């Protein structure tokens, strides 16, 4: 029996190639069917080939014989007071990832994961404590968008996607790029490239490669320190690629008109939140087209760092604004559900609890 392949791991281009190969032996197979299949998968969001009504019976049978359609189960859903929702999503192999839905007055954003855990070891980040468990498949990346979308009230849509959940997206480069292709494909999700942001800790060879791609989402870089000493303490990646090297690559990064690089800067009490640090930021980024997202650290009993005072965070921001730097202060959403920046983590204990919960569901279903 043929092993079924998850169709969501294929871009439309891949699917066309597959169709073309089949067309040599089966005349009823036409490459343009790939467009229709994408429409059903990502615009109509059906869960079976039987629902793809405008495909002939033969084609539907061929698809059923070769592919299956994945979806992610929601193993947990936590609602924050601020309206954001953290989803724990169950993968096929029993592992879990987290995605966060964040409503804004004018639009909705989803923050998605690219890996189970993360190998970058940033000292302020709970995901980093998990280590890297594995890369997500293309299907697992895009299924997060589908899982969150299906919970939206009628008429509401996701507008923005940010790759700022669990994982370093550039460590999973190929699957990331395939997912971006499907997300921006006009026959697929049809998201605007400008509405997608990929955030990296600063893997320089991949930033260079990303700049040469045809698909051009926004680039965000997690900066978090203005000296090598502080940045290396917070982010081990700085030992491999220091600030001078990072700034050189940023200066060479090909930006389209009216685009800029976003630098994320985490404000940690008495470590990164002084006016000297604000001055250092301006010096460091001088000459670049950029904006800075200021993210007050979310105090977490599981970590040693402290949140800045509101007064200090405002003072820091004011200094930047007074020097004509675009620097929104991001009030992190989902803090009360550990869904805010750097708080996404699935511990062994939680994993086994989820396992237990699923076992219970399975037992109930068997009864
Ligand atoms: S901040 Fe990002 S890159 Fe660093 S450990 Fe956390 S998830 Fe990984």
Structural class: alpha/beta
Distance between the termini: 31 Å
CATH architecture descriptor text of the largest domain: Alpha-Beta Barrel
Q: Treating each run of at least 4 consecutive H or I residues as one helix, how many helices?
A: 12
Identify the CATH class of the largest domain. Answer: Alpha Beta
Enumerate the distinct ligands: iron/sulfur cluster
Rounded mean pLDDT score: 89
The helix content is 25-40%
Tell me the overall shape.
elongated
What count of structural domains?
2
CATH names the topology of the largest domain as TIM Barrel
Rg estimate, integer Å: 22 Å
Q: How would you name the oligomeric state of the polypeptide chains in this document?
A: single chain
| Extended strand count | 13
* String of helices and strands: EHHHEEEEEEEHEHEHEHHHEHEHH
For the largest beta-sheet, the strand count, sense and barrel status come to: 9 strands, mixed
What does it look like?
36% of the residues lie in helices and 17% in strands. The strands form three sheets. A nine-stranded mixed beta sheet has the order 3-4-5-6-9-10-11-12-13, with helices on both faces. It starts with a strand and ends with a helix. The radius of gyration is 22 Å and the shape is elongated. Residues 348-367 have low confidence and may be disordered. The relative contact order is 0.12. The longest helix is centred in the C-terminal third of the chain and has 19 residues, at 348-366. Helix 1 crosses helix 2 (33-43), helix 4 crosses helix 5 (173-184) and helix 10 (275-285) packs parallel to helix 11. It has twelve helices and 13 strands. The chain is α/β, with parallel strands linked by helices. It has helices at 12-25, 33-43, 57-66, 138-149, 173-184, 204-211, 228-234, 237-240, 243-252, 275-285, 310-322, 348-366; strands at 5-6, 67-68, 73-79, 85-90, 96-103, 108-111, 115-117, 132-135, 160-163, 196-200, 218-222, 261-267, 290-296. The protein has two domains: 5-68, Orthogonal Bundle (DNA polymerase, domain 1), CATH 1.10.150.530; 73-349, Alpha-Beta Barrel (TIM Barrel). Bound molecules: iron/sulfur cluster. Iron/sulfur cluster is lined by residues 118, 120-122, 125, 127-128, 166-168, 201, 222, 342.
């Amino acid at each position: 029996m043929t092993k079924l392949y998850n169709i969501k791991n294929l871009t439309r281009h891949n699917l066309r190639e597959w169709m073309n190969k089949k067309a040599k032996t089966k005349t009823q197979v036409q490459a343009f069917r790939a467009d229709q299949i994408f429409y059903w998968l990502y615009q109509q969001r059906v869960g079976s080939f039987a629902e793809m009504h405008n495909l002939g019976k033969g084609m539907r049978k061929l698809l059923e014989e070769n592919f299956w359609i994945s979806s992610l189960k929601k193993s947990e859903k936590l609602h924050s007071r601020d309206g954001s929702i953290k989803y724990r999503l169950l993968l096929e192999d029993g592992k879990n990832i987290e995605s966060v839905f964040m409503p804004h007055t004018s639009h909705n954003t989803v923050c998605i994961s690219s890996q189970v855990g993360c190998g970058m070891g940033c000292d302020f980040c709970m995901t980093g404590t998990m280590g890297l468990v594995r890369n997500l498949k293309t299907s697992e990346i895009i299924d997060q968008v589908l899982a969150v979308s299906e919970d939206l009230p009628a008429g509401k849509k996701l507008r923005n996607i940010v790759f700022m959940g669990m994982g370093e997206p550039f460590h999973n480069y190929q699957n990331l790029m395939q997912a971006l292709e499907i997300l921006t494909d006009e026959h697929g999700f049809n998201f605007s490239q400008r509405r997608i942001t990929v955030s990296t800790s600063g893997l320089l060879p991949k930033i260079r490669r990303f700049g040469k791609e045809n698909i051009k989402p926004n680039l965000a870089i997690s900066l978090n320190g203005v000296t090598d000493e502080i940045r290396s303490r917070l982010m081990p990646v700085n030992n491999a690629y220091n600030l001078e090297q990072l700034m050189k690559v940023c200066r060479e990064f090909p930006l389209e008109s009216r685009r800029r690089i976003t630098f994320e800067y985490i404000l940690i009490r008495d470590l990164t939140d002084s006016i000297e640090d604000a001055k250092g930021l301006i010096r460091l980024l001088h000459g670049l087209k950029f904006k800075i997202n200021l993210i007050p650290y979310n105090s977490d009993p599981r970590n040693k760092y402290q949140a800045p005072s509101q007064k200090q965070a405002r003072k820091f921001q004011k200094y930047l604004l007074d020097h004509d730097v675009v620097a929104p202060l991001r009030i992190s959403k989902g803090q009360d559900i550990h869904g805010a920046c750097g708080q996404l983590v699935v511990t062994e204990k939680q994993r086994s609890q989820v396992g237990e919960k699923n076992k219970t569901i399975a037992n109930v279903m068997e009864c």
